[in-house]
Amino acid sequence: MFLTGLTSTIKTSFKPDKKNAPDEKLILSLAAGDSQALAELYSLTDSAVYGFALSILKDHHAAEDVMQETYLKIIDSAHGYTPMGKPMAWILTIVKNLAFMKLRTSKGELSVPLDESFDLTDSSDFQAESADRMVLSGVLSRLSDEERQIVTLFAVSGLKHREISSVMGIPLPTVLSKYRRALAKLKKYMEEERNEK
Amino acid sequence: MKNKEILARLSEEIRSATPDISDRLSLSPHEKRTEVIKMSKSNKIKKWIIGASAAAVIALAAGIGFAGNQYFSVATVIGIDVNPSIELRVNKNDTVVKALALNSDAEIILDEMKLKGVDCDVAVNALIGSMLRHGYIDELKNSILISVDNPDAQKSAELEERLINEINSILSGSSVEPAVMAQSVSDDASIKSLAEQYGISVGKATLIQKICNADPTKTFESLAGLSVNDLYLIAETKSISTENSVTQGTPSSASYITADEAEQAALSHAGISSSDVSYITCELDFDDGIMVYEVEFISGNTEYEYDINAIDKSVLKFSTERADNYSQSGQGGSSGNAASITEAEAQQAAFSHAGVSGATVIKAEYDRDDNKYEIEFIAGNYKYEYEISAADGRVIESEKEAVKSSGTAYSVSADEARQKALSHAGVTDPYEFEIDYDRDDNKYEVEFKSGGYEYSYDINAATGEILKSEKERDD
Fold first, then answer.
1. Model ipTM value
2. What angle do CA B278, B282, B288 make, to 5 degrees?
3. What is the pTM of this model?
C-alpha cells in the first residue's frame, strides 16, 4: 500500500493548522522595509484583525477603519517590535487599543442599531456571498461584549485561552467561563434559528 | 452543532466578511513607498509587483477589477470534484473569471454564489464550505479531487498545494477528515473528449483514465458513473501512480464493510478458520457495477478467490484452484510491511513468553508503521505489556507490573468492565478500544470509539459501578 505510505509522509508536511500564524521574522523583515513582508502579514492576519475589531465595535465600517489603522500602526511600529513569541498577540493588542479608542471617541455615533450598521443582507460589502452569516449574526446580537470578543478571538486568531486572557487583560478562569457560556448561547441561538426556518 | 463547528463556521463567516483593504494600504499617504503591493487573500501565496509606475497601474487596476483584456483571459482551469463538479477559470492573478457547474449538484452549489472577481482560494473555500453544508462532503464522502490545468508545471504544483491547504483549513474545524487528491491535468484532447462524452469533469476523466491504465480489465464507461470517493478508494487499492498528483488523507470507506469483514465473510463461506490460512489479500474494487472486495487466500493446497459485496457482505463470486507453487515464501514479497503473523499468534507468543496460559487481554493493536502488535493483558496479579513483531512473532519489548499486592485485587475483571461500558454506551462495534487499570483508585479506565463518537468510562474495579461516563464527538 504505497499510497498509504505516501499519504502519511505528506500528512506531516501539510498538517492542517489553524491558519498559518505569522512569524516574528515577518515583523522584523517588515521593520527592515521589506514590502513583501507586509503583503504576507496582511494575508495571514486580515480576518483576525477585522474580526476582532468587529467584535469590539459591532460595526462593519468602523471595524474596517480600525483594520486600516492597525496595519498602518504595524508598519510604523515594526522597528520597535520586541520579539516575544507570538506576533499575533502583539497585533491583536494594537487592534484592541485602536478599537477601544474609536469606541470612546465616537461614543454615540456608533450606537446605531445593529441591523443598520451591519446589514447582513447587503452583499455589496462582501466579496463572496456564500451563505447567510448565521453564527456571526448570533455573535453580534446575542453575546455580551466580553463573550463576543473572546469567542471571536478564539475563532479567528489561533491563540490559546491563556494568550487570549493576556491580550484581553481578563483573568484566565473568566475567559474560560465566558467562552463556554458564549458557545452555549450560540448553540441555543443556532437551534432557535434552525427551528424557525 | 458542536463547539468546533460553530467556531469553524464563525471563522469562515468572518473571513468572508473581511473587506479587502490591501489597495488602500499601499496607496495610503502614511506609507511613503514606491512599491505597489498587490495582495492576495490567500494564506499561502503573496504576489507583489515592485517598482515602475506602469506596473503599479496594472496591479491596481487588477485589484479593483478593471475590465482589461489580461484580467479576463483565462490562465488556469481548476476543477473541483466531490460529487458536484465545478470548474473555475482563473486569470493569471488567480482571480476567478468564470465558474461553471458541470452537473446538477454543482448547480445547487453555485446557485447561491457570486465567485467572479474573487481570489481562487476564497472561491474554493466558499465552495467547499457550501458543499459541507449541503451534505455533499461528510464522514462517508470525504474525498475531494482538485485538478489544475496550467501549462506551467511549477505553477500547477504551487496552486495544488495552496488549494490543499485551503481545504484543510476550512475542514479542520469540522468532523470530516478530508482526503484530497490534487492532480495536474494535461491538455490532452482525448481525455477532454471523453470527459465531454460522459458529462464529467476533465479531472475525473483523468483519474478514471489512470485507473483504466493500471487495470486493463476496467473500462472508462464502467467507471464514469462512480463518485470521486469510490474512484479514489479504487485508485488507492490499485496503487495508481501518483505522478503529477498530491494526495492527502484517506478516502472514507465507512459506507462499506471493512476488509476484515470481507475476509471473514469469505472464510466463513469457505468453511475455513483464519488460523488455517497461510496467505490472504483483500482489495476493494469496482466490478460489474458494484463495489466489491476481492479476497484471495490460500489454505492447504487450495487457492480461493472471492468477490464479496462491499455493502452487504454477500458472496458474489468464488472460485478455488489448486495452488502448487505457493508456500510460506509467497508472502511479504510484494510489500515489506505486511503482518505475517496473526493477532492470535502474537497473543500466544506474548502469553508463552510471560509463562501464562490464560489471561484477560485488555489491548491488542496492530501498529502498521512498525509492523508490530501491542498486546496488554492481565494475568494473576500482574499486568503485562508486550510488543510483538508482526513479521516473525519475536518479542520486541515486554513489561510486567504488579497490579495489586493482595490476591483479591479486583472482583470485576477487565472483560466485565469492558462489557459494562459497552452496554452502557449501547455500542457493539467499538474500535481503538483501550482499557487501563488504575491501581491507585482501583478502577478501570475504558476508552473506545464508535459511530463518530469517543467514549470514556471509569469503572469501579471492586463493584463494577460506573464512576464516570463521557461521550463526545470524535474529531
1. 0.80
2. 135
3. 0.37
